[in-house]
User: Fold these one by one.
Assistant:
Number 1:
Amino acid sequence: MLGFLNDKLKKSDSQGTGKVIALMNQKGGVGKTTMAYNMAHALKSKGHKVLCIDMDPQFNFSLLFGEYVPDQLNVHHLLINSVRELKPMHTEAFLSEVIKKSSSGIDILCAGQELSGFELSVAGISGPRQLILKKFIESNALKERYDYIVIDGPPTLGLLVVNILCACDGVLFPFIPDAFSEQGLRNIRNVLLDIGEMGIVTPPKILGYIPNLFEARRKKSREDFNHIKDEFSDGEIFEPFMNRAHFARSMANKKSVFDYEASDYKELQGQFMNVVGSIENQLMS
Ligand SMILES: Nc1ncnc2c1ncn2[C@@H]1O[C@H](COP(=O)(O)OP(=O)(O)O)[C@@H](O)[C@H]1O
Ligand SMILES: [Mg+2]
């Protein structure tokens, strides 16, 4: 009887209408972090309550928010602590002391280089290693507390990536229209297919592909773009983001494109608003 009640309580805990979205590509330098940061600000500007989770051991997302502090407890410690059999062996970590409120009003769970040891840390556990992040989000009722949870993924294909894909409702793939990025897309989409075949969770919806650093004047770039468009027809292909120095500059200044008034930035703001508008529609349920 008590067990039944506990189950019921757990289930109602995990409910919530918030959506988890992730920016993924096995290739680095394609704009995952840039897109995640600006999309989080776009969602915030539409009045949503937003939590960002940095899942890249290189913690660039955390640095952009200006919230990274070396040697502080981070999302890695929270995840390890959320596994009952690992908890006694590690420093205690509480969500309330790890979550940071950034000046933009967006909350952030920072990453740290410890995340690169995540796979090894959880290697021996008896429960499903793929579902640690999903269960962490559920047991802390994060989908009740936030409208959108934006995850910045690492440029790898291991257990961290599987955890992210199992935890999210929708996934976006930024890419540079070139052969390397195309291979990165193919590899991560295969992981997504494997997750579907495993049958342990409903795989996330492919919300779309975001072409970035597109050089419309170069024939090769146009050809590669068209090739990728043909091969990846299972999600929306968004309007390409061009290579823009002032875009990179805003990132270098740890600002989103929404912090600027100039017309170039207005155009980028519009592009990001289009992307999040599509996400809102696609995840409406
Ligand atoms: N459209 C763009 N125009 C100019 N620079 C960009 C653009 N998109 C990304 N960058 C820059 O490229 C670098 C890599 O982007 P980043 O978002 O860190 O990629 P990833 O997270 O996939 O490794 C960053 O320095 C970023 O500021
Ligand atoms: Mg990154």
Number 2:
Amino acid sequence: MTTDQEMNDNRVLRDFYARDPEEQQLFLTDTWCDHCQQVGLGMREPEEYELFGLLFIEGKCCQCGETVLTELTEDDFDDE
Ligand SMILES: [Zn+2]
């Protein structure tokens, strides 16, 4: 049985601010907002966590304040 509560319980919080400042900046600006339907609006109050082996950075859209979710793929760690 899977509930939303269990989903949340499976989150493993990570320290977003432990990242390289340039990387932080990139994640904070390179966003997609479902609500605004626009890229690059930026997010605030970022929170990084791991869930089911995937990394996510969740924050609030700078424009509308709705939740913005970025899923990190391996590619994000590779190049440059
Ligand atoms: Zn928005």
